Structures are given as structure tokens and as C-alpha cells.
Here is the input.
Amino acid sequence: MNLINTITRAEAHDIRFILMDIDDTLTTKGKLSAGAYQALWDLKRAGLKLIPITGRPGGWCDLIAREWPVDGVVGENGAFVFWEEHGVRKELFHPSAVPNDHPILKHIREQLSTYVPQVRIAKDQFARLFDYAFDFAEEEPKLPLSVAEQVRDIALSCGAQAKISSIHVNVWLGQYDKRSTAELFLSEHFGWRAGIEDRAIFFVGDSPNDEPLFERFPLTAAVATITQYHHYMHAYPRFIAGMEGGEGFAEIAAVLLNTRRNA
Here is the structure.
């Protein structure tokens, strides 16, 4: 990983879309800082299209689509996209998304209550449409990554998908992830052409559930928080910020905007 300030003028100039994770990428210790939110507005005013890509639930994503300076939000690790168009909130659901009342997901929850009793259902579960989120590090007491790995392994053994974020293990049914749904939305809504316009995409993340995007696109970055997951990942971003969380995102945004102005 190279420091973000090594990005070239040509690379920065080609970027049209900024995709980013939310928790521990835009936020710092659970809070959206003034600097990170200002960075979103600065990027938006520079003419870039902004698309958060998150494991957070449908209820949160409805608010984000309506109230943040974004052009869409991919939620629940790729189950759907929400966006606002002419004052109306629109939606696109991934064709393989399965509602979270499915018996397999209920079985996984029962298995976890028996074999990993210390893990708990995330407090935002009530707002979810397609997945279960198991909290290991959002609220106290925070649990080690080894517990998150147990949750993931049990879910996978039951035939579900599972991804570890910086705070939750998200478990769902359906053949999708952050990357596949982001690409679907970019293609259908903006006419983006995969393989031809890959360098128009810049993604910022922080944790293992961002690996599909780190692996897919040539221009990616992470906030410094990612270093704690080094041994849990196989795909890494090309660039890294010097700071963690929202401060790292603001740092990345400032470098991109300054480099584009000098292009």
C-alpha cells in the first residue's frame, strides 16, 4: 500500500465516482465528524458522484439517500441501492436478495446462541430487510476478532454468506456482495462500462468486508484503521491514508481534490 499522496495527476483526473464504506471509514469511534461530512460536500461540489457502500440497514440507508450529499447508497452489503431522484426516493434490489425471515437465517441465529453465546444481535437489526448483523465491536463489551471469525464460520457452514466488518458480522442469503451491487447500479443508473471505465471509480474502505472492491478496482484506498486487519485479508487497497476513520477519509478527499486541481 502506498501513501495516498502518491496518486498521480492523471489517475486523479480520471475519477468520476467516489465509493466509500461508512463505519470506521467515514466515522471515527462511531461518530460522523464535521471534517468527514464536509469532505463529502467538497467532493460533491467538485462534480464527483458519491456512493456510500455499507453493511448498515435499510432504515439507515433511507435516511442517507434523502439527507446526505450522495447519489445513491448500497446497503446491507449489497442487498439493495437507494437513491433520490426529483424528490422521490428510488430503490433497486439485488435479484438474488432473500428476506431475513428465511428459516436458514433463523437456524443460524439459534446455532450462534448455543455455540457463541457472547455475541449479540446488532441494535440496528430492527431496521434490516435482508440480513442479520451480529455485533462484536460496536458496543461494549467489545469482543475479539476470533469471536467474529466463529460467527462467520458457523454461518458459512450453514450455507449463508458472511462478512466481517469493523463492528459486525453480516450474514445473508443470496449471491451478491458490495462489489456486484455497486457495479449493477453504476451500469444501470449511470451507464458506466465495466472493463472500459474502471479507472473512473475510486473506492475507500477500512476492513475485510471491503475486499471485493479492493480486489476489483485499480484505484482504491483505505484509512489507516485497516492495518489492524492485515492478517485477515487477502486483497488490499492500493493507497492508504496516514490517519484513521473520518480523519483519514477527509485526508484522502483533500489529496484527491488538490491533485485534480493541479492536473
The chain has two domains: 2-96+176-261, 103-172. Helices lie at 9-14, 34-45, 58-67, 103-115, 145-157, 178-190, 211-216, 245-261.
